[in-house]
Amino acid sequence: MQNKFCKKPLYEVTRTLALVAMGAVKAELVIRNARLVNVCTAEIQEGIDVAIAEGRIALVGDASHCIGENTKVIDAAGQYIAPGFMDAHIHVESAMISVGEYARAVVPRGTTGIFMDPHEICNVCGPEGVKLMIEDARRSPLKAMSNAPSCVPAVAGFEDTGSFIGPDEIREMMTWDGIVGLGEMMSFPNVLSGNEQIHGELAETLKADQVITGHYSVPDTGAGLNAYIASGVRCCHESTRAEDVLEKMRHGMYALMRYGSAWHDMPVIIRAILDNKIDDRFACLISDDTHPDTLIQEGHLDHIVRCAIREGLDPIKAIQYVTINPATCFRMDHEMGSIAPGKCADIVFFDDLNDIRITRTIIDGDVVAENGRMVTEIGKAAFPDAVCHTMHVGETITADSFKIAAPQGAGGTVKARVIEIIPNRVGSFERIAELPVVDGCVEADANQDIMKMCVFERHHATGTKGAGFVKGFGFKKGAMAQTVAHDAHNLLVAGTNDADMALAANTLIACGGGMCAVADGQVLALVPLPIAGLMSDRPVEDVAAMIEKLSLAWQEMGCTINSPYMTMALIPLACLPELRLTNRGLVDCRTFTFTELFVE
Amino acid sequence: MQNKFCKKPLYEVTRTLALVAMGAVKAELVIRNARLVNVCTAEIQEGIDVAIAEGRIALVGDASHCIGENTKVIDAAGQYIAPGFMDAHIHVESAMISVGEYARAVVPRGTTGIFMDPHEICNVCGPEGVKLMIEDARRSPLKAMSNAPSCVPAVAGFEDTGSFIGPDEIREMMTWDGIVGLGEMMSFPNVLSGNEQIHGELAETLKADQVITGHYSVPDTGAGLNAYIASGVRCCHESTRAEDVLEKMRHGMYALMRYGSAWHDMPVIIRAILDNKIDDRFACLISDDTHPDTLIQEGHLDHIVRCAIREGLDPIKAIQYVTINPATCFRMDHEMGSIAPGKCADIVFFDDLNDIRITRTIIDGDVVAENGRMVTEIGKAAFPDAVCHTMHVGETITADSFKIAAPQGAGGTVKARVIEIIPNRVGSFERIAELPVVDGCVEADANQDIMKMCVFERHHATGTKGAGFVKGFGFKKGAMAQTVAHDAHNLLVAGTNDADMALAANTLIACGGGMCAVADGQVLALVPLPIAGLMSDRPVEDVAAMIEKLSLAWQEMGCTINSPYMTMALIPLACLPELRLTNRGLVDCRTFTFTELFVE
């Protein structure tokens, strides 16, 4: 695949690189006397120079003859250098910041490339949202290579999203410069059953000679996994058992081992490699979803590499897993992923191989970060209006909007189906609860830890909404609302009383989406996420601080579970068990049918 | 790169493969209970089934549910299966047989794919010759992936070839279905010096997103090797020292370790891997040039793999070097090179991992060879007239054509520059010899082991010819002629007397080129090579027998060195030291200048 992500295409600069290597033209930058982490041969080589010109590496070895009077020289004595780190599967939206801001957070940590799957924004804004992410990335030096989201909506027929992706949209996106593959194919049951539309998306990707990325999250490593891989899927980040990783690699699939903010699969699944003497060329380390506070406090791939080394992985292998292996996965290893002649000069520096802390990041031959901070400017963001005004709710929300009429002939209480959440897990249970009826309407009941909940369609102002009850968040008072509500990202509101729910909803409508907490008629905390209702336009530190404030507000309302807004965000995701609420109603996700709120 | 070499593109068959893996549609072929050489993880897995449909692998594991009443089942109990072998660098012309016939020789040996560089025929017939090779391959199941020859002529300005290749021709060839890369870039001095035309060829290849193959044959692993690799060259088969291999792999270049009929580099250079604990993903085994008798008696890649194992290489690694590694080198690993779902069903069978003898070859899901023989038909060859009539000599050759006039005022003898060959080496020496003058003409002198030699331009009937003397072949009588004369492949004639030389030359002109031996006015042996004067249209066994007869004739004339026709074939190759003869005259290859035949 032609690389559109380097300063210049190789075909424009081969002469210059040859002449620089020969010393006939002097290098722009020379790194001297480094300890090279050679990911090609998995060796440490001492005393290595690297000569750079036109954003690419001209020579690796002794570069004395490449230094002229205008050559910048970096003395790397005692320091390791490695190729820049690449994340083979990441949703930037999960960090709730723009791509440019994400770059500012991760580039100083050594990340020089990401393969992002912007399927959250695509659910809201469609392909235009994907294009925005690609454009936004261009104001930073980070190589943000994008996959075209494959599954919008996540579960067709059960919710309303802002957009729809099918084979036609995939064919179109495959022609874009910033697209390098198909986003995670979550609809694996449709792959296995031979669904025409889903296979149409796969076909459009393969015709464009691009890479299909996967999401195969079930424990079957037999027929199903084979069917999935045979359909052309090249990688998968959904392994939760060591045997998943082993079987994927045995079947020629890149196993992307995940260590995100919420999902810590890597320590378990890396046993596949640590406990078996196998060729690990198909192994990668990825983050998938990272919260702002993790980026600030722990880091990105540097953090994951350190964790993998702590688990017992050889440091050179760990570095291969975030450099040459992901590059090869995306068939871009001729352009990036190693410190070798002709490759993009994406290079990181660090002092300790067993505790890798990045001290300098070079992208395309430019020093872009040093000592944890960017040293080049990241341009100003420009987000088009359409992406910043995505709150299209089809009714004026008042307290009355949240009333749930009791069934005809109901007495003082009714039996209702309630979604019970499981703290720190993605699943939920269906419970039957007896709820009070007041003035013909069914009410929340804080004594049973049951809140009222509504999902308002917010993309096309259809005026549709789903209503139900949720159990387990511990709210004694108040309400919350958020537009981060996977995957359709409609307006999700839950609370103990209708007035606070209305205030929460209207607060988000007014600010273009985000997350907020309300109690006693006051807004306790607000995280405005004006970009598609998913991302802030502010710095990562500000967003982290706002989220911290939101967490405190949730606690004040009585919720003590960890990152509750994340658990909340999954309640409308109709591909997770058992009971979910979308804007179309209550979904039994065991049978994939709508179900009634009230029980006979 | 989109693979045009499988039965069907993956995008047409993903649905079927998924359904076969799931058992909803039954497989066409199932291999049961094999010992799988898993090149992805470098393991042997026992009791493995492989289900196949549409020429591709649908499932690897337990395929019980994939078997229907129309499924062909192969019981592989006790047998190993591995991916079909691929040769990452091969000149088919060196075997002096057509590509279809070459396939018949190598497919039963387990070769399912070759990356051929048809630069011999390209020197004679230009891109049309390359096209012919690609077309010819289509009558066999062998996947003959072609590189576009890069260096025609080999040394510009010193000889006349039938064709010329520059950036325009490369741009054109890159659009052909059968082309996957640029042929070996022998003109490495021009790469290093930044020559515009040579870098133009590299640029056209890179723009087409194809692979540049290399030929870097000097021992410098510093500036020169870096300059060469920085120019985009991805692989090289010209290593002669272990350190060459090591440095190439360290620089991210695929090291293609050669073990051809004449050049046995592998046992020496494989020490790079055997003596160093390194990641060997950049290692391949290749043949480069193989003679017909080697193909018949020893085999092809199977032979090279056996030899590598004898040198101490782990058998699984040896198999990786001819499967997944070359596939990855050409960025076709998503299509071939492993036994994994979705990949082309190119599979070989054998019984002993330490002495690999192929018993069955499957290509695209069809059993094509068993027990050393093809079991499918190879279609009839059809070679267009232009390719079969390439003898365009610009004069009627008689004994007088070979007269070499003595310099004015010469006495009974003259001093002349003579090419002295070195048996079993590619080099030559310049010698000064005193030669007899008879009737104003300088004569050969069998007593000094010096023959007369002429090179007639044979492509455009320009009537140009070069004349000189050669020492070291041991001829007591007779003459030889051949059109296999690298790289221009003009008509090369050498002999002890003008009459036999004329007969030899005219014999080849009459039969369309080839090799012949003549003595005392009789043709002792003739190897007609009507396809471009380089290849026979007959079976490999016949060609081997004819060459054997030719060897006997050379011996009868007095020549005792090994494969003398190979040494002879290199005499016009002006990129080898010290003295060479082309149709334009005598070339001093140390200074790259024409030189005088007679010395003051």
Description of the molecule:
The structure is a homodimer. The first copy, chain A, is of the alpha/beta class and about 600 residues long. Helix content of chain A is about 25%, strand content about 25%. Chain A is built from 19 helices and 30 strands. In chain A, the strands form four sheets. In chain A, strands 18-21-20-19-23-22-25-24-26-27 form a ten-stranded mixed sheet. In chain A, strand 29 and strand 30 (about 595) form a beta hairpin. The longest helix of chain A is centred in the last third of the chain and has 18 residues, at about 540-555. The model of chain A has no long low-confidence stretch (mean pLDDT about 95). Chains A and B meet through helix 1, strand 3, helix 6, helix 7 and helix 8 of A and helix 1, strand 3, helix 6, helix 7 and helix 8 of B.
